[in-house]
Amino acid sequence: MNIRNLFSTIIWGLLLLVIQIFFLKNLALFGVALCFIYLLLILHLPVNISTISLLVISFLVGLTVDMFYDTGGIHAVGTTFIGFFRPIWLRIISPTGGYDEGTSPTLQEMGTGWYLTYIVPMTFLFSLLFFTVDQWGTMGVFNILNKSFFSSILTVLLAILVQALFYKRRRSIL
Fold first, then answer.
1. 3-state helix, strand, coil in the chain (%, to 5)
2. 37 has pLDDT over 50
3. Structure confidence at residue 174 (pLDDT)
4. Is residue 27 part of a domain?
5. What is the pLDDT of residues 39-81, one digit of tens each?
6. CA–CA dist 153, 157 (Å, integer)
7. Which of 9, 23, 82, 87 sits most deeply, having the most CB atoms within 10 A of its CB?
8. How many CB atoms lie within 10 A of CB 28?
9. Is the distance from CB of 13 to CB of 42 less than 8 angstroms?
10. End-to-end CA distance of the chain, in Å?
């Protein structure tokens, strides 16, 4: 990652955190679906980032959100888990020729089908872990699955919208 990409990633990450903390904190669609748009910061890091760097960044991003949400580490647990699981999932869904050096797993770089295969399970796993830890013992499994499912859908839809509006097109979406 060159200095220009690093700088733009830091600015983009700070913008996502500000949007999450100040605008999406109290947004709950129908009292069920929460939006976790800040996950894009972790999910869109380059494919070849080292695992240790990814885990540290994931933990710090989650801890930052926890400090503003006063949630006691739930976001840090979820983001660290997806930081751990991300390289495994990227290997599982790797294209035939592998990934190019410095490729970011975005909609514009990888295409719609691959991107949905990547982001839907990752956001669902985050949401499932988040709501399981948050609602442990107080809510049934159906309610945890319900919140996880709808939060994942809302997050993925907003992720696609953000990319359609703000990311440069490098290749065809379809």
1. 65, 0, 30
2. yes
3. 43
4. yes
5. 999 998 988 889 999 999 999 999 999 999 988 899 999 999 9
6. 6
7. 82
8. 15
9. no
10. 27
